[in-house]
Amino acid sequence: MRKDHKKELWDYLQNNPGWHTSSELAVVIGVSQRSIKRYAKDLIDTAAIFVSSEGYKANQKKVNSTTKRNSDYESIKRVLINEFTQQENLNLYDLADQFYLSESTILKLLREIQLYVKPFDLELRQNGDNWSLLGSEMDKRKLISDILYRESKQTFIGNDTIQDSFPDINVIQISEAIKKLTMIENIYLNTFDFNNILLHIAIATHRIKNGYQSQNSEKDNDEKTVIQNDNRENNQEQSFGNKLIDFVENAEHIHFSESERQSLILIIQFSITRKHRDLEDNVKHSTIVLVDNLIKYVNSMLNIDLRVLNFREQFAIHIQRLLERSSHGYVERNPMTAKIRKSSPIIYECAVLISNRMEEIEDITLEDDEIAYIAMHIGNAVSEYINDLHKLYVVVLMPDYQSDNDEFMSRLERLFSQDIVIGRVIHNPDMIDEVDYPRKIDFVIQVNSEYSLSGIRHANISQFLTQIDYKEVNQLITGLKHKQEKINFTNNLEKFFPKENFKIINSETNRDALFKMVCDELEQKSVVTTDFRNRLEAREKMSSTAFGRVAIPHSLQMVALKTQGYVVIDPKGINWDKDNNHVNLMFLLAINESNKQAYRNIFDDLSQIAVDPKNIALLVKSKTYDEFIKQLTALL
């Protein structure tokens, strides 16, 4: 589908305040710098953006009317889908006149819509020049929900968005009713769940008001079965659902059929977060066993230990809800999916591993939205574990006559808890060498003493921890952490990406062709076996490894004969998936199980660099391997 690059440019500048160079914008939008300058000129002429030697930035006070032009092909596509859900037939030539587009362009849009609606068990059928959308009413409602999430551009769908979409409904009144009923029934709804219930109620109400009502005979209405948990909880959720539906019927003067009522109650049950009271009462034993299996699997694959009691309990509750949704074929939409994948690749990768393991054990299929929810639940635990591994190991050397040692140590730990682990307090410098420490000492904090500590980094401070003392320790931490990270990263780069595994392509290509070329090379060098390409494609089928303009493809299992990476730069873009997303930089990773710790480190380091478009713009400019490695190291 043709993209409106000028609108993409305007949206990016609006959502990312500050100055942006044309080279950075070219990478983000996926066009040449010359094209960026051409699009920018039109926006400058309307005072929508400013230009200077630093690049371009949005005029935040300017409302650009061009964003609503009919040349926004994605918007036209969504309008067409909405019309198909409301009319029996649409005529090709009438649509061409309506949108001022050629018949061939409209036909291309209709072909794309055919592919888009297929996963919803809907069919866009052609009969001469007329087209119609065939399928059940409940599936059409699922389609409408998906359209709204896409229109929201991965942000929260709240009252205003839903009200704008369904002006014939009093959304605010229904929203207030949900809030009131949650208090009465002692029901907890987080923001995602609240908006999800509100959206589905609004869609169902709007469709009934406009004469589209599901029939009891529809196959998807075997959803009458409600999920069975603790009886008290089940009754509480059913009571909440029935009271809410009764309110909507009275307020909006409509009537839900029995099948529609049961379908909405099921959605409400899936959306209610159960606060932890007692793990055994809330979650089946089989789910607890599954969660323990998942935690063990993540540790075996990524060396990330999630065996934290509170995490296990809360995660088990989420997995129980996920399994219940999956058993009924229901997917809970997540407005943060794209943002999570792009901003936290290592956390999202961990969620993909968990999802893949669940699919193997439970014989289910999980979509990206559900994977993103898993990422949200594991995010803090994964981040905290990785941060702890990056903390510096410190020994405190201080005289044993200090009477306020405990208070001093408490303050020290509080001030630097994010950066250091205090291994031990010693009173004699000889103990630095004599004691067997669990880790290599990164530096010593020497308190009220002036020992000569040759051969080891140290900071001299007072027992009062003044601003000067804080600055002394903080500067040492910053310098050491950066130096350590740079050394580790450089060592990993040389190990993972040999010079012969670096290629610059100056023509458009696609992911599959690239996988074939790289896998053939790696197979010839006895790095991977013949099935490695299939393993890469299986990982992409699970969830795309691309985020922004970068992709880090790899297999779900660490089965490479040797550990190596392969870098491909393509300034013109690699067509990565069926959604026509393009990437300019690919880090392909082939990992042997013996190098899983190094894999996690390199994946984490690369993803942290790659999430910033400015960094990608610099890397894509590289002309040689040495220039690329030098630039990559400098960006850490």
UniProtKB/TrEMBL annotation:
GO biological process, one term: regulation of DNA-templated transcription
Gene3D superfamilies: Mannitol-specific EII, Chain A, PRD domain, Winged helix-like DNA-binding domain superfamily/Winged helix DNA-binding domain
Record SUPFAM superfamilies: Phoshotransferase/anion transport protein, PTS-regulatory domain, PRD
Transmembrane segments: none
Listed name of the protein: Uncharacterized protein
Pfam families the record matches: Mga (PF05043), PRD (PF00874), PTS_EIIA_2 (PF00359)
This protein's record includes keyword Repeat: yes
Keywords: Activator, Repeat, Transcription, Transcription regulation
Domain (PRD) ranges: 165-278, 282-388
Record PANTHER family: CRYPTIC BETA-GLUCOSIDE BGL OPERON ANTITERMINATOR (PTHR30185), TRANSCRIPTIONAL REGULATOR MANR (PTHR30185:SF12)
Domain PTS EIIA type-2: from-to ranges: 495-636
Species assigned in the record: Companilactobacillus bobalius
Coiled coil (UniProt feature): none
